[in-house]
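Support reply, case 0932

Customer input (verbatim):
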Amino acid sequence: MLVIAGIRMSGSAQFAVMTKKAERAEYTVCIDSGHGGNDPGKIGVAGTKEKEVNLTIALKLKKHLERQNIRVIMTRTDDRNLADANATNEKISDMKQRVAKMNSEQPDAVISIHQNSYTDSSVKGAQVFYYEGSKEGKMLAELLQKSLIGNVDPQNHRVAKANSDYYILKNTSAPTVIVECGFLSNPEEESLLISAAYQEKLVEALQKGICAYLVEH
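Our regenerated output:
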C-alpha cells in the first residue's frame, strides 16, 4: 500500500505533501503539549514530569513539520497551563481553552502529545487514541501507530484505539489524536523518553505519519 510505503521510505511522504500542497492552501497542524504549569501530568519512576517531556517532544515536532512548510499552531510553548486566571476549576478551564485554540484555526489535524503510566511497571509502548466514530481520526491514528511501530519500536504490538470519553477528542472539530509516546512508569522506557536521540526518533515517526495522512486527506 502506497501510504504504508510512504511511512517507511525516507522523504517520500514529505515529498508527496509538498507536491499536493501546490494544489491547495497550506496545511495546518495543531500540536497540543499536554499538562503544564502546576499540572505536571504523570510522574515517572525516576521523577520525570510528563509536562516537560510533552513540551520537548511537541517543540521538536513543530520544527520538523515547519521544515515541510506545514503551518503549526501550538497550544503552549512554555511551562504553563491555559486556565483562566480566575477559574474555579483550573483543569476544566485549561481543557476548554485548549479546545478553543485547537478549533480556532481550523487545522487539518490535531496532535496531542502525552506520556502514559500504569501500575505494572513492565507495561510499555506508544499508543495513539482517536475519537470513536471519527473516520478521519481513525485514519490519522492508524497511520501514526504504524509509523511509531515501524520507525521506533517494531516489538510494540499495540494498535490505535478508539475512545469516546476524552474531552479533547470529543470537542474538537478537526481530526484529533492523543499520542501516548510511552510509559513513564516503565524504568527503561522512561530513560528512553528523556533521551534526545529517542525523542528524535519519535518525532521523525510522527512527522512521517502526519505527512502520510495529509497526502490521503
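We compared this against your earlier run and they match. Two observations from our side: The radius of gyration is 16 Å. Helices lie at 2-8, 12-21, 50-67, 90-104, 135-151, 167-171, 187-193, 196-216. Please reopen the case if you see a mismatch on your end.
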